[in-house]
Design goal:
CATH superfamily of the largest domain: Enolpyruvate transferase domain
CATH architecture of the largest domain: Alpha-beta prism
Number of strands: 23
CATH class of the largest domain: Alpha Beta
Strand order of the largest sheet: 21-22-1-23
CATH topology of the largest domain: UDP-n-acetylglucosamine1-carboxyvinyl-transferase, Chain
Shape: globular
Largest sheet: 4 strands, mixed
Strand content: 15-25%
Structural class: alpha+beta
Helix content: 25-40%
Amino acid sequence: MSKFIIRGGKQLNGKIEASGMKNAATPIIAATLLTPEECVIENVPKISDVMRMLEILESLGARVAWTGDHEVTICTRDADIKLLDEKSVKCMRSSILFLGPMLARFKKVTIPEPGGCIIGNRPPDTHFYALKKLGAKVERTNGHFHLEASTLSATLIILPEFSVTATENLLMAASLAEGETEIHLAAAEPHVQDLIKFLGSMGAKISGAGSHTLKISGVEKLHGARHTLISDQIEIGTLAVAAAVTGGEVQIENVIPEHLEIILLKLQEAGVKLEVGENFLKIKPSDSLRAFRLQTMPYPGFPTDLQAPFGVLATQCNGTTLIADPLFEGRMGYIGELVKMGANAIVADPHRVIITGPTPMRGQEIKSFDLRAGATLIIAGLIASGETVINEAEIVDRGYERIDERLRELGADIKRI
């Protein structure tokens, strides 16, 4: 177990490069199972969720090598489902992304129920509903899922919710199914589009990227490919909030502005001064921040993973902010920690919080709760007087590469013990 020790009151200033996207890396790593040929993935973030996905591949007998600072070369030619390390699967929610490619590759799969963080209940029903539509038989016994399909047959699939990971599992499985699969109410997030681009470079035939209707014409086989991951819109949004509340000037590089439209709009509504370039975002000191209203929605709406960072932004805004997050019932856990630090916040129900500001923040000993809450509490520590101690720092390592080192380079007083 590790801790972050933060002494607040320091402005952030300078340049920082955004990492490759965690939520693009995990499905694309899983997709390498769809071909026996070598795949090279660039701009891969060195975070624990990525390392665990790679460990699962290695447990299957795949060859995994870091061939560059942020480049991974993967060959799954010798992968064998009988070798699967069930402990690694249980440790992370993202391991559910192996369902589609494993079913397409091995025809018969038994895996334990994937684990995950505590943001709320996320049953895999949509995944199984979709895979059954492709012809899979699915059973659940003793905490394990058993899937079997001698062949996957294309069909029309209407998803009961905008599930990102279910869409991704379907895309991977349907790429090797017989015929044309059509998905309605598909997720359209940038990382779903990035997976479609990767699958296309492997020889998959997919149309409709960026929309909620996808068509996949199954092919007999896929080949190896080289792909560069998109930058992480969630990390960019987190860094932007950190810059805004500390009052400094920070330029974030390796940015894709079209992935940030609603995020930038909400920053501007809150009074944050910013400059957007072709591949950078600069946050400038603001005279005053003002309250805003925010509701998370499927893309192109505001991402649920940035709700918590914008919660700490609201504590520094003049007026009362209402934030609603209808998807996960555990997303507001961080609010109690912000209140300990001085925030004026009321959780109206599991999906809504009312925050009135601005309020000074005081250093406290707190805990991370989940990945995004942990990053949020780091931001709170950066503006708090005195010393903030954040326990369970390794939770933040799931999605942010060397966050303490990179913030120090911008002037933050943060260390890990």
